[in-house]
Known about the structure:
The structure is a single chain. By secondary structure, this protein is mainly alpha-helical. The strands form 3 sheets. It has a two-stranded antiparallel ribbon. The protein is built from 8 helices and 6 strands; from the N terminus they run H-H-E-E-E-E-E-E-H-H-H-H-H-H. The protein is about 50% helix and about 5% strand. About 30% of the residues are buried. Helix 1 (about 1-35) runs antiparallel to helix 2 (about 50-75), helix 1 packs parallel to helix 3 and helix 2 (about 50-75) runs antiparallel to helix 3 (about 135-160). The N and C termini lie far apart (about 75 Å).
Amino acid sequence: MAGNGWSRNAAPLCAGAVLGGALVLEVFVVLFQLRQEDGDGHEHEKGQPFPSLSLVSLLFLLGNALENARRFITASPSTRGVMLAGAGQGWDYCYSCQTHVPPRCAHCFSCSVCVLRRDHHCTLLGQCLGYQNYRYFLCLLLHGAAALLFGCLLNAKVVMLLQQEGSPVHTVLLLVVPWLMLLIGQVSFATFIYAFVTDVCMVGFLFCTGFLLFHALLTLRGQTTKEWFEGDRQYNLGWRSNLQDVLGERWYLVWLSPFIASPLPGDGITFQTRKPKCEPLAKSRDY
């Protein structure tokens, strides 16, 4: 069972590492191309320094994204190894695991286990998003989106340099339908590769940004996806407390690196709820 679980989780991480490495190599070529040509299409002098700052920035973003992905997978939010004292107020019974589970805990049929503060199962990484790994999921989306946008802008600049003699419509069509432009012989294969990578980076950037904004909103509201659909806001303790519950005590630093320690304040079993608003009693009328 453990071997199957590791195979399920390791495959997406290895695929991400391969794609990230390919992106680094491709951007390395792009930076070399930009070093040879300036904005007017003229070649630089041989003594022109290599843009190492751009490459270091990309490696920093990709390194953080991959490490956050690894920690997201290994920091299992399941109930395995967690002592569940017994049924309490708000607890449910899981017939699949045959045990009582605390509030906000739900069974994942993909992982075959109950998950503490379960949000959803991430198919791309083969792991559930829950109490222990929510921080790494958000940081993965942030650094992944930044790296993809960085690669997109660099590739788009090379495409525009290579298409200086063409019309703006020709460049737009190349970025929108690169396969068609290659098939009809309007661009070279090298230009097609730059345009195709630009499109892939843009799609990935939009995908990561959309998920990041949605889950950032859920974090600020103290909700999971299920609670958002149901309109349940009983765990909303204010934006600062909500951030600490998900990102830990150093919630303002965890965005910089996954190596920054930030202990979570709770245990994933009990959660503080906001106090219900007391409605004023109706005044009695004397007749």
